[in-house]
Amino acid sequence: MIYPALLALLLSLLAFLAKRRWKRYGPEPCGGKKLPSPPSLPLLGHLLELRRQDLPVRFMELSQCYGPVFRLRFGIQDVVILNSVEIIREALIKKWSDFAGRPPSYTGDLISFGGKDLSLGDYTPLWKIQRRLAHSSVQRSLRTNLESLISQEAEHLCQDFLSRGSSPMDVANDFSLHTCKIISSMTFGVLFDTKDPEFQAIHKCIAEVVRLWSSPRVIVLDSVPLLRKLPNATLEELLRMAERRDTFVRNQLQIHKETFRPSEIRDILDNMIHFLQERQQREQSLAAEGGEEFNEDHVHMAIVDLFIGGTETTASTLTWTVAFLMHHPQVQQRIHSEMIDILGPNHFPEYSDRNRLPLLWATVSEMLRLRPVAPLALPHATTKDTSVAGYFIPKGTVVIANLYAANHDEMIWKNPTQFRPERFLEAEDPKQAHRNVLAFSAGARVCLGEPLARMELFLFLGHLLHHFRFLPPAAGQLPDLCGIFGFNLRSKPFQVRLVPWTEPGLGEGQE
Ligand code: HEM
Asked: Which atom of ligand 1 has the smallest separation from the CA of 377?
């Protein structure tokens, strides 16, 4: 008897909350327009939309009917979706501080010392310090000999591929191990061997944390607090993996602190320790005045985020590029010829060659445009009452920037679903065309790894296409280009034969 009564109470509470939140989106007192929203179910709102795997595409479809900005309701959570370049720029760039927040996350807090995270942390004074520190540390690293490290890694990988012969293989994990190796070297100053089982274990652990945290059984805990009381094996596994990750980072922190010398900053972690030590001295006076504390947990989580951000994203983009180029062998041929003609047969591209190798550079941008690996970015939250396109949006609203839709925006891109790197070469203003790609988002939360990712993509692709043609395992066996949508947009697993240009190849793809 008690359960139906409880259920009725719960349903009426949800109905009340939903109605109350709905009202908040009514016309603004001073005359803002009401946000369009598709018809929804009582209580559930638009929750059933979440069954769709390809949410970015679904949101694009909805924007055809409801315009580039609309509202959805998931249970009691209102979410505003932005779907065009113009609207995303207005929100994230023009009104950047209004949209710089992150929504609270129960599960995010569990794996980040109570929300001391860089990617998921809200827009607070401490977060600003953390972001500035992470940004300046990455920039500092970019100014050192990073390019030679990336080129060396790209060449190692090519030599490894050469030693395996031209039989079909899945390259996704190799790319992921190498991007992870580069970010490890930048953060910890350690050049791991990608075949070292210990390194492979931490690489796998990081991937598992992302996979488990974005699984439906964990995500649902953020919107249905009642479920937090029930046993949840996926959450327990996530906590175990996060603990393993933290032990690894803690060890690195310990080693760095023991060997730290302020006159010799070796890597990103040293740079952060240096900052922390200087700040802690100053903070003794701040604490006496009741000021907030920036501590080792913030450094720890910034390192974790660089590690996570720096591994799978760039690797997935590279994998996508191989998949698309298998469908377009003539583009492979033209990029290879461009390199040989401009640089000669014995020189690999350097990052400063971007303007001299416009097709290679355009291919990187085209891939970031067509398959942005974080298609919905990370959820933003408004930090105050604000508006976009004249629609009122209250403080604390969750806002999703649909980067996938922006990169398929027909106002900006002709035939947006086609893979055509040439579009960047033909553009009236090629530099602006490259800037129009919104794979790294924009504004206060723009990806702080963009310069690193672009350099890695350019150099790895340059080395790969200098050595190899990317051929299907057998004639016509080309990769599926639809991909798997989720938190990341990944390609489905596929096999490729990496055949040196000097060897004849069978079973090429179609142009
Ligand atoms: C192709 C490669 C990459 C893509 C497409 C990408 C894309 C993104 C996107 C869309 C966001 C969310 C921005 C937002 O919420 O509006 C983001 C955030 C972030 N990315 Fe990347 N990323 C890439 C590589 C990297 C690399 C190499 C690093 C590490 C150096 C990195 C570190 C981060 C961090 C720390 C954040 C959180 C920023 C914040 O919340 O303030 N990313 N990235």
From this structure: 10
Q: What gap in Å lies between CA 442 and CA 380, rounded to an integer?
A: 11
Q: Which CATH architecture has domain 125-376+440-500?
A: Orthogonal Bundle (1.10)
Rounded distance from Cα 313 to ligand 1 centre (Å):
8
- 394 CB neighbour count, 10 Å cutoff: 16
CA angle 65/70/76 to nearest 5° reads 125
Task: Locate the ligand 1 atom nearest the alpha carbon of residue 446 and give its number.
Answer: 13
Q: pTM score, two decimals?
A: 0.92
Question: Does the annotation place 447 within a ligand binding site?
Answer: yes
**Ligand 1 centre from 304 Cα, in Å?**
13
Atom of ligand 1 nearest to the CA of 305: 35
* 440 CB near ligand 1 (under 6 Å): yes
pLDDT less than 50: residues of the chain: 1-20, 22-23, 25-31, 288-290, 507-511
Centre of ligand 1 from the C-alpha of residue 281, in Å: 31
Q: How far apart are CA 459 and CA 482, in angstroms?
A: 26
Rounded-to-integer distance, Cα 166 and Cα 310, Å: 29
Ligand 1 close to Cβ of residue 433 (< 6 A):
no
Distance between CA atoms of 183 and 201, rounded to whole angstroms?
Answer: 16
- Is 302 close to ligand 1, i.e. is its CB under 6 Å away? no
Which residues, including other chains, have CB under 8 Å from residue 464's CB and lie 6 or more apart?
A: 154, 157, 158, 322, 470, 498
Q: Concatenated DSSP letters for 32-83?
A: PBPPP----BTTTBTGGGGG-S-HHHHHHHHHHHH-SEEEEEETTEEEEEE-
Residue type for 128, please? Answer: K
* Residue indicated by tokens 């994990």: 173
Q: Which residues are within 8 A (CB) of 346 and not within 5 positions of it... i.e. 6 or more apart?
A: none
pLDDT digits (tens, 9 = 90+) for 275-321: 999 888 776 655 544 456 889 999 999 999 999 999 999 999 999 99
